[in-house]
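Could you help me review a protein record that somebody else here produced? What it holds is a sequence and that sequence's fold in token form. I need someone to confirm that the token line plausibly describes how this chain folds. Take the sequence as given and treat only the tokens as open to question. This is what I was given:
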Amino acid sequence: MLDPALLDTLAAGFTVLARFHQEAPDEVSLARFWELLDEWPLTGTPGAEEGSRRMREARAAGEDPAAIRSDHAWLYGTLATARVAPYESVHRGQEGLIFDEHTLQVRQAYRTLSLRAPQPNREPDDHIGLELDFIAQSCVRALEALDQGSTNDAERYVRLGADFFRDHLGAWAPQMLTRVALEARTGFMSGLAHLSLGALESFARFAALPVPSERE
């Protein structure tokens, strides 16, 4: 039996993580995040514990949007060469290039939830933020199906999320996020990486999948 409260918790956590991996927070969203930090929904994992600790330290140190935005761009290559490429294809493809077979597989998976990348053919579909959002959306759709009394549809959406996690997100994100945590120059970005690792573990346990390893 699916637990609506757990689905809601997963959807909320993955939505926030997806947003911040795609784009650094502005002043308003950062202030809101600091206010709600102590209520982070995905708890009970080493990643969540370490991520929350680093985020609290960043909040106490007064890290501002400019510093976080600079670190985000430095890490993910928004303004120059990426320290840690945020794309699945770079980490899993034999040539280490974007828009390879993994990108196309992810694009096809998005269609199962009627999703698409914001800038297809200009920015790869397999960005870490977009893949995290797919998990969030699978949970949202499952919740909506439960609200409409359709357990079968809810279970189908959960399976879509679990399959995507097994075939894509869980196969590369742990290693990538571990590198982000090591390379980050702000507590926020390091904390974001750890919170994301915790979220992956939480979803894997929810979906009865092996917890992905952080090792290369």
